[in-house]
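#structure-requests
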Amino acid sequence: MRKFGGFPLKTDYAPVPLAFFSTLLPEITDAAELKTTLFLFRILYLKKGFPRYITYRELAADAGLLFSLRPHGTVPGEALRRSMAAAVKRGTVLHLALTRNTGQEDIYLLNTVRDREALEKVKNGEIRLPGLELKPPAGEILTEPAPNIFTKYEENIGLLTPLIAEQLKEAETLYPEQWIIDAFKEAVIANKRSWRYISHLLERWATEGKKDGTYQRDTKATDPDKFVKGKYGHLFQR
């Protein structure tokens, strides 16, 4: 165990509800759930606007959180999903499944009176969250969020470092999500589990085209049968 060097002179603090220590802490026995819960307190405190919420995509993209969960599962993404499901079941946080144009989005709010009221207003349409819509049927609660590219990277390629997380975020803005997942699969098949290989693959697909996971080249210019099967094919011999 590496010894902690101590807190710096100027240290920021994140508030934790006192009820956590008296009611929740004695009941939480899973270390992964405890770590995730403390992380949620910090990140929700830093959020702006109303209501304050965090998405599963944001959680899965936080390399620091996933790194802390590595001892609690073969894949940190699995530990995160399990921890969030436990926190929702325990009542620490509120959870609502929504949709955006890229697919499912799961949001989490702290279970306070104010946020319970806000969640009801989101369900009945009084409050609209930017870019998000209710997932049909309205109000359906899911406890197993669908894996995204960050958890898929951990499952197929390796440790999600802060640098890789930033590169994945950038890739999301450039390529379809399914392309990125397909690139992970190609890297596994080729036994080249590296972001460098994956990024080059995505760039090549973007340049040459992609269909069903294969490259699309212009074969017309190099087709050996182009002349043999043409109008003057009888003049050529193989």
